[in-house]
Structure formats: C-alpha cells, structure tokens
Design a protein that fits this description.
The structure is a homodimer. Chain A is an alpha/beta fold. Chain A has a single domain, classed as Alpha-Beta Barrel (TIM Barrel). The first copy, chain A, is 41% helix and 16% strand. Chain A has 12 helices and 10 strands. In chain A, the strands form 2 sheets. Chain A has an 8-stranded parallel β-barrel, surrounded by 7 helices. A two-stranded antiparallel ribbon of chain A has the order 9-10. Chain A is globular, with a radius of gyration of 18 Å. Chain A starts with 10 loop residues before the first strand and ends in an 11-residue tail after the last helix. At the A-B interface, helix 8, helix 9, strand 10, helix 10 and helix 12 of A face helix 8, helix 9, strand 10, helix 10 and helix 12 of B. Chains A, B: It comes from Tenggerimyces flavus. Chains A, B: InterPro entries: Aldolase_TIM (IPR013785), HMGL (IPR043594), PYR_CT (IPR000891). Chains A, B: Keywords: Lyase, Metal-binding.
Chain lengths: 308, 308
C-alpha cells in the first residue's frame, strides 16, 4: 500500500454548536450548553462554540454570552468563537475567548450579502481585529469562505482566494481556514488550492472546512490528507443545512470523518462511540433526522447478530 | 496538479432498477419500465435492468420477464441481469439477456443467508453458469459481494476475496466486480484489494460497486480512480437502502458520481441534467426522499439569483 500517503494524526475542530446550529431552527440555550459539554467529553480537542454576530442577522446565536458562561470548560479543549467584524471580536474578547475566527469571503458578492461590505473592507477590518486580539494575547484565524465557489458568482479563481488569504496572513493572522461554504469543492479543486497555498504560503497553519452539500466532502478530505493537510472542521451529526439549497446537507459529519480517518489508521483522539451518543442527542435537540450516515448505520465494526 | 492522476473517462453502470428497487418497497411494473427507459436516454452505456431471483425471496423482482419485454432497448446501451444461481441464469438467457451477472459472497455466512449454500457451492454453480452462458454467446460477470466486510462476520481478509475472485476467473468469468454490500469499504481497504487484484489478476476487467452506507462511497471511488479502475456501479437518486441498517443509504448515487467525475475532467458520457430529471421521477416512484445530495442541492454550476 504505497499510493495513499496519509498523515498519522489529524486535528478535528467540532463546529456543530456554531456552524451547525446557526443553520438550524433556534434551540434553547440549555440544549446548546449540553451539546458543547457532551462534545468536550469525546476527546475532540477543538470546539467552535459560538459566534458573536448581530442577533437580528442570526437569532440562533443571540445567546452566545450565556452559552459561553454556562459551559464546563474542559482544560483539554480549545474553544473558539467566530466573528464577522470588529464589534464581534470585541464581544468575544470581552467574554474571555482567546481563540477568534474571523470570516471573510473570497467572493465580493457573497461578502456583501453576508456582512454588507466588500471583501476589501472586511480585510481592512481584519487587520484591526488582529491587532486588537494580539494585544489581549488571543489568536486570530481567518476563515476565507466561498473558497471553492460562490452560490451567486459561481467559480472563484484560485488566485483570488490566494490573494485574500495572503492579505490576511500579511495582516498577522495566526491561522488560515478555507471554507467550502456551499459544498462546491471537488478533489481536483482542493488540490489546486492547497498546492497553490503551499507554494505561496509554505508556513501557514492551514485548516479546511468542507460542506457535504453535493456529497464530495470526504473525497475532498482524502485529497487534502494526501497533500499533508491535518486540520479539518466537521459538525456532529452533520448538523446544519445549506441556506441556499433547502434540504441539502451542511458540514461534513464529525462521526463520518472520524470513522473514515480511524479506519485508515489516521488518529483523531476522538471516541467514536461516545461521539455517536452526542450525535443522537443533537438529533433530538433539533427535532429532525440528521444526515450523518454513520449515525444511521453505525460504524463498520458493528456487526449484525446472525439470527437478526 | 500532479498528485491526482485520474483516467480521462470511466464507464458507469446504472444499477438503480435492480439493486436500488430490490431494496425499496415494491413498485409497479410500468414504473420500472419508465425508469429504465428514462435512464437509457441519459447517455449511460450500461444498465443492470433486473434480477432473476425467486419471487418468494425477492418479490420486488418478480416481474423481471415483463419489465425486460416492455422496455425500449436502446442499441447504445448494454443491459444486464443479475442472477443468484443456474436457475436464474437459465431464465435470463431464455429472456434474451446476453450479459449476466452472477453473485457470490466472499463471506460464507453471508452467502448462506443470501442463497442458502456455501461460497464453495456457489463457485461450483458459477462454473456451470459460465459454460451455459458462453454456449449462448453471453458474457458472465462475477460479482463478489461482501468484498470489504460482512455484516455478520465483520472484516473479510483480502486473500479470501482474491481467492474467490481467482476461482471465478479460472472458471471463465469475463469480468469481475467487487461489491461493498453494506458500505464497509474505506480508501485504504480499497487500495489493498485493488492492488492485490492487479498483482494476482493483472488482465481482469474490474468493476467496483460501492454503497454509501457510511458516507465513504465517493472517497472510495476517488481512490480506485487513482489506481486506474474505470468501471463503477451507481444507482439513480441513490435508490435502495441497506437491508441491515434501517434508514441507511444504499448504492452511491449516480448523479453524485457523475457530478464528481465530470467536474474533475473524467468523462462519463452522461448528461447530468437529464439524469437529475430521472432521479426526480425515481423519487416519485418510490414515494420518499432519496439520499442523493446533488438531487437535493443541484450541481455546483447552478448558481442562486442575487435577489433570492
């Protein structure tokens, strides 16, 4: 087996409480707290817990301060908050977060629809956010959304994405994540953007955030693994839909990712059986079936009794 | 982009009318005929149309003769029938099929549950089926099911699968397909079995049949493509479930496969938009939502109007 060169371990970031719940009907604060606390006992090392956005824009995240105050902070877990702008960054820092993700879209159209300003304006704001955060000893990860395509503009040129990412790094970003906002990535596109990044920004701490909107999520992960990427976002149960395609899937499901990786000998540190219990709870929390296949079928190691 | 070495084209076999419908509640004969006829206009070159099994075992396929008699035979399409034993092969040949697939399980336990005899007994029968078919100028493909694991036995050793496959080829089989009956394959397991096959049976016409029960289907396809495999089964809409896991997905969805391949520059000859119309009809036929993500979200090229 010499073809598939895979890393020995990867770091999974659980984004269900934020990216997942943000795209589901609102759930009670206590449910969010229980979800995050359940996740923090699975062995996952990073959880994107909340976002600090205007509650009129995204009512699902209106209780971010309360959620953060109530969760049991597991010292083995790094919790992060996503922010759309300086105001959100100030709130996240004031709440005590020391890991901030700030999002900017490679698509100008998407950025305007999302935060009502141009990509350029967001990049300027990011510079200010980074300065602010570093003063508080917090780190800032820049998430470049629509990195593999925009639901309005269609394809986004690799060079455009690389330019936006480079600008963020020049402004002092500590890490970079490419977001496949509406599941438009495919393996050859992943290869093009990742190798382009490795060429222009060889030292970057790079994460990838795939949505499974068109079923390509795990094939994209496999490609990225072969290119040496070791940081991936996923959401428990596959929580979260696609706002542009009713009924379509959201993030890749954490159980599917862990199941795939562990079977291939790529360690995640996550206890799959424990994670599946949390996924079942997540399903109850949102009140509908979640797209995770491993939640439905069970892991491949779960055999059927012969007399069944 | 030098890492992903992909073939320039692949041959997709549509198995929705057989493997799909066999695992769905029964549908009327006319619906099956319309489904097959719709598929034969999409550009797909191979369709697994029916199976000749005992109607008490699989009532869904009880009208195989009638379906076959009624469909419009597109001369550009190769139609095949799946059979479990000699009796089924005789019926398929009498009906006029000149491409027969015969299934044998690498798992003895699964083979006994499926056809009430040992793998060894099925292999002996296959020898007789091949002789019979070749006399009628028909070809026989042997499908080795549970090639990546058995729902009862768990893992199946690669050597066991290779032994069963070799026996079939020695008996004169014209082609070989490995079936991932309950979606237990992952990329490293695909690599192990495919490279093992290429080592022991370098000249075999090899096809792969993945189920997406645990979300790994397209990652498995990607791995196989990188190893040079160019024949894949898929079912329109992702028709068909998993008999061992209620609610779990069946075959990989043809639209998802075509969408992935075509975007990567791997030609299938299939018109995706036309296929999506057939998938929507398939959904009406079975009366419930099908798992195909591309059916739900549309292809990545389908953008949203800005004022939406």
């Amino acid at each position: 087996m010499t073809m598939l060169r895979l890393p020995s371990e990867v770091s999974v970031r659980e984004v269900g409480p934020r990216d997942g719940l943000q795209n589901e009907p609102p759930v009670p604060t206590e449910g969010k707290v229980a979800l995050i606390d359940g996740l923090s006992q699975t062995g996952v090392k990073r959880i994107e817990a909340v976002s600090f956005v205007h509650p009129k824009a995204i009512p699902q995240m209106g209780d971010a301060d309360e959620v953060w105050a109530k969760i049991a902070k597991n010292p083995d877990v790094r919790y992060s908050a996503l922010v759309p702008n300086s105001r959100g960054a100030e709130r996240a820092l004031a709440a005590g977060f020391r890991e901030i993700e700030v999002v900017v879209s490679a698509s100008d159209t998407h950025n305007r629809k999302n935060v009502n300003r141009s990509t350029e304006e967001s990049l300027e704001d990011i510079k200010a956010i980074i300065a602010l955060a570093h003063k508080e000893n917090a780190t800032v990860e820049v998430v470049v959304s629509t990195s593999w395509g925009c639901p309005y503009e269609g394809d986004i040129a690799v060079d455009r994405v690389l330019d936006v990412a480079s600008r963020a790094l020049e402004s002092g970003a500590d890490a970079l994540t490419y977001g496949d906002t509406t599941g438009m990535a495919t393996p050859t596109r992943v290869e093009a953007l990742v190798t382009g990044t490795q060429g222009r920004m060889p030292d970057v701490y790079l994460g990838l955030h795939f949505h499974n909107t068109r079923g390509t999520g795990l094939a994209n992960v496999l490609t990225a693994l072969q290119l040496g990427v070791t940081n991936f976002d996923a959401s428990v149960g596959g929580l979260g839909g696609c706002p542009y395609a009713p009924g379509a899937s959201g993030n890749i499901a954490t159980e599917e990712l862990v199941h795939l990786l562990e079977d291939m000998g790529v360690a995640t540190g996550i206890d799959l059986e424990r994670l599946l219990l949390v996924a079942a709870e997540a399903e109850k929390l949102v009140g509908h079936e979640l797209p995770s296949q491993v939640l439905r079928a069970g892991p491949r190691t779960r055999t059927t009794p012969l007399d069944a």
